[in-house]
DNA sequence: ATTACATATGAATATATGCTCATATGAAGA
DNA sequence: TCTTCATATGAGCATATATTCATATGTAAT
């Protein structure tokens, strides 16, 4: 195949796809997203269930928020986070299934 | 939800899923895998088409080989690489589609 | 206003990652 | 065997990433 005959991806698309997969590439974020795919959670609950510090969780939520993969609603002092991108959750679940069935 | 009521992912699964997405998280590897999903390529061809050094391509192929995402066959001095994990290619193409349609 | 609680954020640090450069390996032909 | 070509690999470096620690912000109750 000649160099000009390829169907190329624009660098914008490549960067976007890279961002999606980067979000899913970290064990901590995988656990957070999987947890949020099961139920809406507040920050401390996530920290307790996943046995990590409040700060670490909050930093990761901040990143996931920037990528619009999660959203939250406030109830008093508490913020309840949930998933905001079903497609990305679908990618995650497919990878989990794939991994579980070798 | 109580801490014990969650469906947890084993750390082995989490690590595996993380490895898959890490492989897909780098722009260079996205381009290589997308190219290989279109045609079998030798190393120099990949380097030329993607305008990167032979060494950089070879390092990335080495990683993709270890993860069994690509395979190769030899023809004389030349190695022809191709995709070896249709499921991962499927994840990649879904992310591309998603990204293209905003 | 003061305090307590829930969460966010900035700086610092440690580790991971991707590239380059130089060199090694390995196959094929002279 | 010597050379050439295709690819692989190791060391070193620069950047990115995830965490911790300390502190800030913001809400609600007293």
What this model shows, in words?
- The structure is a homodimer of 102-residue chains.
- The first copy, chain A, has 102 residues and is an alpha+beta fold.
- The first copy, chain A, has a domain at 30-100: Winged helix-like DNA-binding domain superfamily/Winged helix DNA-binding domain (Arc Repressor Mutant, subunit A), CATH 1.10.10.
- Chain A has helices at 11-24, 27-38, 43-49, 54-66, 86-100, and strands at 41-42, 70-75, 78-83.
- In chain A, helix 3 crosses helix 4 (54-66).
- The longest helix of chain A is centred in the C-terminal third of the chain and has 15 residues, at 86-100.
- The termini of chain A are far apart.
- The interface between A and B is large, with 37 and 37 residues.
What key phrases describe this protein's structure?
homodimer, 102 residues, alpha+beta, Arc Repressor Mutant, subunit A, 3-stranded antiparallel beta sheet, 5 helices, 3 strands, 60% helix, globular, DNA-binding
């Amino acid at each position: 195949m000649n160099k000009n005959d390829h169907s190329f991806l624009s660098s914008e698309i490549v960067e976007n796809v890279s961002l999606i997969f980067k979000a899913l590439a970290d064990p901590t974020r995988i656990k957070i997203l999987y947890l949020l795919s099961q139920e809406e959670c507040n920050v401390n609950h996530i920290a307790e269930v996943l046995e990590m510090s409040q700060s670490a969780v909050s930093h990761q939520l901040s990143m996931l928020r920037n990528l619009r993969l999660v959203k939250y609603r406030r109830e008093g002092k508490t913020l309840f986070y949930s998933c905001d991108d079903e497609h990305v959750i679908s990618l995650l679940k497919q990878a989990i299934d794939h991994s579980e069935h070798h």
